[in-house]
C-alpha cells in the first residue's frame, strides 16, 4: 500500500474537544446499544449540539485560528476525495479528539470498511491503552468491535455536523461521548515506549487490513 509505513499514536495535537460522558470512551463497552437505545442517544446528541456550539471548548471557535482552520480544511479535502469512491465511510474519516483519548478512522481497500485506532495516552501513572478495530458502515452508522485493554469492546459511531458521537454500554448503561476536533490522518507511527509489543501488533493489523492515510488516487 503506497504511502503507508507508520501511524503516530502519540502525536501532540491541540485538543479542543470534550466528552459529554468521557468515562464511556475509556472503559470496556460490553455490548452494542439496542436499536431503541441508539435512537434515544441520537436524539440526546442532537439536542446537545447547540450547547456544544455555544461552549468555548466545544464550539467552532477553533476555526478562527489560521493554523487550526488550515488543518480542518485538509480533513475536509480528504473527506471530499474519499466521498467520490466510498461515500459511506467519508464522513467518519480523520482523527477525532476529546481530552486525552482520540479515535483515528482510516479508509481501507475494502469498500464500506474502515480501520479504527483508539488511543488513550499514559497519564498520571496510568498505562496507555491503544487498540485496533475494523468497522463497517450501514445507514450512516459505524460499528466496531475491538480488543481493548480489558477485553472486547463494542462501539457505535454517528456523525452530526462537526461532531462525532461514540456510543457504548457500561454496566448496562448506554451513553454517548462527543468528539469535536478533527485533524488530518498521518502516515507516521511512533511506537509506544510503554507498550512497544502492542504498538507492533497494531501496526501489523493496520497493514494486513489494507488501511491507508492516502488519497484514493495515491493508493
Notes on the protein architecture:
With 219 residues, the chain is an alpha+beta fold. Helix content is 25%, strand content 29%. The chain has helices at 23-26, 35-54, 66-83, 196-208; strands spanning 94-97, 102-107, 113-120, 129-138, 141-148, 151-160, 163-170, 173-179, 181-183. Strands 8-7-6-5-4-3-2-1-9 form a nine-stranded antiparallel beta sheet. A hairpin with a 4-residue loop joins β1 (94-97) and β2 (102-107). Residues 1-25 have low confidence and may be disordered.
Gross morphology is globular
SS class:
alpha+beta
What gyration radius follows from the Cα positions, in whole Å? 16 Å
The N- and C-terminal alpha carbons lie at a distance of: 6 Å
Q: How is the main sheet built?
A: 9 strands, antiparallel
Estimate the mean pLDDT confidence.
77
Spatial arrangement of strands, main beta sheet: 8-7-6-5-4-3-2-1-9
List the helices and strands in order.
Answer: HHHEEEEEEEEEH
Strand percentage, roughly?
A: 25-35%
Reconstruct the topology from this structure.
Blueprint: H1 23-26, H2 35-54, H3 66-83, E1 94-97, E2 102-107, E3 113-120, E4 129-138, E5 141-148, E6 151-160, E7 163-170, E8 173-179, E9 181-183, H4 196-208
Antiparallel strand pairs: 1-2, 1-9, 2-3, 3-4, 4-5, 5-6, 6-7, 7-8
Amino acid at each position: 500500500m503506497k504511502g503507508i509505513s507508520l501511524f503516530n499514536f502519540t502525536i501532540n495535537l491541540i485538543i479542543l474537544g470534550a466528552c459529554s460522558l468521557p468515562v464511556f470512551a475509556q472503559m470496556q463497552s460490553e455490548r452494542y446499544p439496542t436499536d431503541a437505545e441508539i435512537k434515544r442517544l441520537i436524539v440526546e446528541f442532537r439536542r446537545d449540539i447547540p450547547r456544544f456550539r455555544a461552549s468555548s471548548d466545544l464550539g467552532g471557535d477553533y476555526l478562527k485560528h489560521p493554523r487550526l482552520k488550515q488543518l480542518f480544511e485538509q480533513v475536509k479535502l480528504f473527506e471530499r476525495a474519499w466521498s467520490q469512491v466510498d461515500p459511506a465511510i467519508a464522513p467518519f474519516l480523520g482523527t477525532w479528539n476529546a481530552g486525552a483519548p482520540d479515535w483515528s478512522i482510516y479508509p481501507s481497500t475494502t469498500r464500506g470498511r474502515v480501520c479504527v485506532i483508539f488511543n488513550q495516552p499514559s497519564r498520571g501513572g496510568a498505562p496507555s491503552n491503544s487498540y485496533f478495530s475494523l468497522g463497517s458502515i450501514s445507514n450512516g452508522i459505524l460499528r466496531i468491535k475491538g480488543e481493548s485493554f480489558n477485553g472486547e469492546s463494542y462501539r457505535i459511531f454517528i456523525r452530526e455536523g462537526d461532531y462525532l458521537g461514540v456510543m457504548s454500554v457500561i454496566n448496562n448503561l448506554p451513553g454517548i461521548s462527543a468528539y469535536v476536533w478533527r485533524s488530518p490522518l498521518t502516515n507516521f507511527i511512533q511506537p509506544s515506549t510503554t507498550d512497544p509489543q502492542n504498538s507492533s501488533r497494531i501496526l501489523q493489523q493496520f497493514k494486513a487490513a489494507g488501511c491507508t492515510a492516502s488519497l484514493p488516487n495515491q493508493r
